[in-house]
Amino acid sequence: MPGMICKIISLALAISSGFLGQQAQAQAVAKTQCASSVHAIIARGQGPGDDLNVMAKVQNMILDQIPGSTSLGLPYDHDADDKFTAVHNGALLMQNYVTEYLKICPESKIALIGYSLGAVTMMEAVCGTSSLLLIPTQPFDASLNETIIAAIAYGDETFVPLQPWDVGDCTVGLGIFPRLLPITCEPFASSLQSYCDYGDDQCCAALPADDNEAHHGYVNKYSQDVVNFIKGRLNGSVV
Questions:
Q1: Which of the pair, 209 or 37, is modelled with greater confidence?
Q2: Whole-number Å distance between alpha carbons of 148 and 126
Q3: What share of residues in the chain are helix, strand, coil (percent, to 5)?
């Protein structure tokens, strides 16, 4: 009997955990909280702590400089030991957040911004998977390419050089999980900006390293450019 009771309790806990997990997948927002301009969903890099970390600077710049904007840090498992599962689940979560948000706020525009592990997560959500070792994820439907007006990656490990959305001075190196079919990103080409510089061992691998210093410089170096890009996409001056 005690064993049966334990099984019943375990089943109840599992059902409860599953329900809570499903609830956590939805981005709750009231119509009165819809962005009148852009809603930014930001995926930080790997590590412990809150869901923004250094990306709080990007968030604050968007909120300060773009009237009517809103934002949040994507609560994916950025502190997980298994980065492959974290990326896959994070990409699905980002897709779900966008889908659920647009059900309530169909007039809002979306900006997706990711750094490091968060950049891989964002790119997987937008383009789907074409890198070896990463867990397969389907891309966003191409019909969202007028709603997702910005998709920004800092130090993306799936980086491939010579793409029209590449920004920075890495023109030879590859990400450590290079995207084999960058064509899957093309429906969102006008929204994409992928920042990768020499000296970043994660997005521009196989080049002389400088202790990976470049990987940690994107937020300070490029965030004003990102805000300007989002502004341009909103007002139609960047197409």
A1: 37
A2: 9
A3: 45, 15, 40
